[in-house]
Design a protein that fits this description.
The structure is a homodimer. Chain A is about 30% helix and about 20% strand. Chain A is α/β, with parallel strands linked by helices and about 280 residues long. The termini of chain A are far apart. Chain A binds a DNA duplex (19 and 19 nucleotides) through loops.
DNA sequence: GTTTTTCATGAATCCTCGG
DNA sequence: TCCGAGGATTCATGAAAAA
C-alpha cells in the first residue's frame, strides 16, 4: 500500500536521498503522507501543534450579544474520539520513526485532546520528560460563568523511548533565562496578538490558533543545537520555522492548507530580508 | 463473584439501605469493593487522589549526597501501564456509577498518570469541564539539571456525561475569592508542609503525598453545597474529609491502609474537638 | 500632539426550564 | 427531543476613535 502510494505520488521519492533538499521550506502536503517518505531517524526536534478536536456544539454569545469567532474550520472536525485517536496514532507513529534516538518531540493541546495525545505518546513508546503549562496572561473569559476561566494550554515533551540517551537540554541557557533559577514547568506568555499576529486582506486573523513565537523559540533553544534539524508536521503560519531560522537551526515543515503555506512562506521571506538588511535606524 | 464476595464480606451489605450509616467515617477497605456496594447515584462530589504509578527506577541523590525520600510504597507499584489502566478503569467506573447525574468528579495526578486518567474519563463517558493546574510555589528542584523543574500537578474536573445538567459551580464565591475576577484554571498553592503535614512517631512525614488542605477546600466550596455528600475513594490522611467537614458537607471516605485510616480518624477527632471548643484566646 | 474612551477579540467542549 | 422564553453573564490588550 505505502509502496504503491510512493510510486504513484507526484512528489519526488526522497526516502533514500536524505532530506537536505527538503530543508528550509514549508511543504504543502498531507502530514502523514509526507512523513512516510522521509528516512528514519533524520530529525532532532519535532514541534507539533495538531488540530485540537474542540467539539464545539453551539454558538457562544458574549454578554454584549456579539458572537465568539470560534474555531470551526474543517480541519478541526473529527468523527468522535476514535477517529481523532486514529489520526493521531498515524502522525505520531511517523514522527517517532523520523525522530533520531537522541531527538525529542513537543506536542501542544488543551483538555479536549491533550489526554489522548499524552496517553498515545506513552503507548507508542515515547517517554515523557516533562509536561509544561502555558499560562496565558490574557485568556478569553468564561462568559457564562459556569466553569473556571480556561487560562492555560499544555505542552508535552518526550524522548523517543525510555532507554533513549543523549537528548539535548540546554539547562544553563534556560536557567539564565529564568533569572538564575531552574526553568520551571509553568511558562507565562500572552496570546499571540498585535503585530505578531498574521492578518489576511480583511485585517482579520489569518489562522485561528497562531502560537506565540517567543514560546516556540524557548523550545527550540532549550532542546536543540545550532545546525540541528527541526520538524513541524502542522506548520500553520510557520511559527516553528521562524523560531528555528532565527536561532540557526535547519528545519522542514509540512502544512496541508495552501493559504497557510503561502502565508508562512511570505513570513519567512520577510524574516530573511530583515536578517540580511537590518532595520534602518 | 462480586455477589459471593458481598455475602462473605464482614462489612454490612448496605446496597439497598442508603448510605446514611456510612457517612462521617473513613472506612478501611479496598476502594473498588467498597464502592461496588454503594447504591447508584448517591454522591454529589468525588475527589480522587489515586496512586500516581510513578515508575521510579533508581534512587535519586541530592547534590549534597543525601537521598531523596521518594514515593516507593507498595501501593504505587503497578505492572506497567496496562495494569494501571485496568485498575483505574475499575475505580473510575464505580465512581461514575455512584455519582449523581448532577454531581462532578475531581481527579489529581502528574504526567506519569494524568494522561491515562484523562483519556479514561473521556472513554468512560465523563465530560471534562476544566483541567486545572496546581502551580507549586516550592517544588522540588530537578537535581540533575536534565529536565525542567516539575513545578505543577494537574487536576481534572468532569461531570457524569456530556448531557448531564445541573452540576454545582459556585461561581460568585470563586470570583470573590479571586479578588473580584473569575477564578482561573491555574491555582497557586505551596506544598503541604509545616504543622499541616501529618507526622508519625519518628517525626517523619506520615504520607508521601499529603495534599494542601486549602486546595481541597477550594474544590469542596466551588463544587458542592452545604449538606451535599462528598466521597473520597483514596482518602489517605483524610484531607478531603477535613475539608468537607469544615464546610458543612457530609462525606464518606475509603482508604486501604490501616495506618492512614487511623491517622485520618485522629485528625478528624481533633478537628471536631476544635470545632466544639474553639481555641482559648 | 496628547490623553481618554470606546470597541473589538482571543483553541470555548459556556444555561435552565417548561411545553 | 426540540424549541422558545427568561435571565444571568467577561478579562486583558491593542487599535481606533474621540476629546
Amino acid at each position: 500500500m505505502l509502496l504503491a502510494k510512493r510510486k504513484n505520488s507526484a512528489s519526488v521519492a526522497h526516502a533514500d536521498k536524505g532530506i537536505d533538499g527538503l530543508l528550509g521550506k514549508v511543504h504543502q502536503a498531507d502530514c502523514v503522507e509526507f512523513l512516510s517518505k522521509l528516512p528514519e531517524a533524520c530529525v532532532d526536534l519535532i514541534f507539533a501543534d495538531p488540530p485540537y478536536n474542540l467539539q464545539l456544539r453551539h454558538e457562544l454569545i458574549r454578554p454584549n450579544l456579539t458572537k465568539v469567532d470560534a474555531v470551526n474550520d474543517r480541519w478541526d472536525q473529527f468523527d468522535g474520539f476514535e477517529a481523532y485517536d486514529e489520526f493521531c496514532r498515524a502522525w505520531l507513529s511517523e514522527c517517532r520513526r523520523v525522530l533520531k534516538p537522541t531527538g525529542t518531540i513537543w506536542v501542544i493541546g488543551t483538555y479536549h485532546n491533550i489526554y489522548r495525545l499524552g496517553r498515545l505518546l506513552q503507548d507508542l513508546g515515547f517517554w515523557i520528560l516533562n509536561d509544561v503549562v502555558w499560562i496565558k496572561t490574557n485568556p478569553m473569559p468564561n462568559f457564562r460563568g459556569v466553569r473556571f476561566t480556561n487560562a492555560h494550554e499544555t505542552l508535552l515533551w518526550a524522548k523517543k523511548s525510555e532507554k533513549a540517551k543523549g537528548y539535548t537540554f540546554n539547562y544553563a541557557e534556560m536557567k539564565a533565562e529564568n533569572g538564575g533559577k531552574q526553568m520551571r514547568s509553568d511558562w507565562t506568555f500572552s496570546l499571540c496578538t498585535g503585530g505578531e499576529r498574521l492578518k489576511n486582506g480583511d485585517g482579520r486573523k489569518l489562522h485561528p490558533t497562531q502560537k506565540p513565537l517567543e514560546m516556540v523559540e524557548r523550545i527550540v533553544r532549550a532542546c536543540s543545537k545550532p545546525g540541528d534539524i527541526v520538524l513541524d508536521p502542522f506548520a500553520g503560519t510557520g511559527t516553528t520555522a521562524v523560531a528555528a531560522e532565527k536561532h540557526g537551526r535547519r528545519w522542514l515543515a509540512v502544512e496541508q492548507q495552501p493559504d497557510y503555506v503561502a502565508a508562512a512562506n511570505d513570513r519567512l521571506r520577510q524574516l530573511r530580508r530583515q536578517t540580511e538588511r537590518p532595520t534602518v535606524q
